[in-house]
Fold this protein.
Amino acid sequence: MAESTMHQLTMVEALNLALCEALEHDPTVCLLGQDIGVNGGVFRVTKGLQERFGRGRVMDTPLAECGIVGAAVGMAISGLRPVAEIQFSGFTMQAFDQIEQNMARFRNRTRHRYPIRMVLRTPYGGGIRAVEHHSESREAYWAHTPGLKVVIPSSPRNARALLAAAIADPDPVIFYEPKLIYRAFREDVPDAPETLPIGRARIVLEGTDVTLIAYGAMLRRAREAADDLRDLDGTSVELIDLLSISPMDTQTIAESVRRTGRCVVVHEGPRTCGIAAEVIARINEHAFEHLLAPVRRVTGFDVHFPYFQTEEHYLPDPDSIARAVRETIAWDPTHRPR
């Protein structure tokens, strides 16, 4: 990333900056979604953008998720670069047909004549004491869908850089924003525009004992666990931030596991057929002979996301992550149950 004057921004502010820069520098970029104009979006990510760029570039829509995505697909076919917002990721299900049947397929259906250059932004995940359909983590649905890219930032700076890259990408991108960390902390973000490559993971900490893989809001909890393990046990954790779920950076994952011989994968979505399962499959394909212990998962449970009274019992936390790492390091094949 290029260095320049820095400002401390939250993720909400960094995303707003990325959208503002895209609108300013590319006349084909437009925004649409429920309440994104006058109100600036439910989390105020688009605050002030309609006032600055006008109703023709930042468009309030009816409460109709299928209509929002369908309109964005049509805009993309006509040569625009729409950025559509769905207020909460749980309500992308109302647009599932448009996402799966058109957004993901149209480029292939037309033999690449009509690429769908669009981004679907949506807040996801738990931890803010929300009600039903407001805390889901369904990124595995979209990672399983050919034709879509799936990007999940973990900090203000990489959120700004990845959103800029998603808007410029020639393919449709699902951009999941972890709302738990929308305003949880600030980070230095440069004045100069910057992008990060989609499909590239980032090594946050270098280590030798175990590879710890996370993304989104769980990256911060994994970092806290890694710091505790270092301070309390002297464990050297190599921490990887996936950043992109599809395409996934298999090379960075495999190279790390070959170095450490052990791995723990963290995500807040349900366990079965989750992103961790895909990561483990790739490790088995590309680094199996280097494993010193089975790869462990720390995930949400195979239940509907609970109401706010119990949501913290559902979400992975630093203690459960650290416990999985300790168990992985202590695993002894000569003492396993028969």
About this structure: The chain has a mean pLDDT of 96.
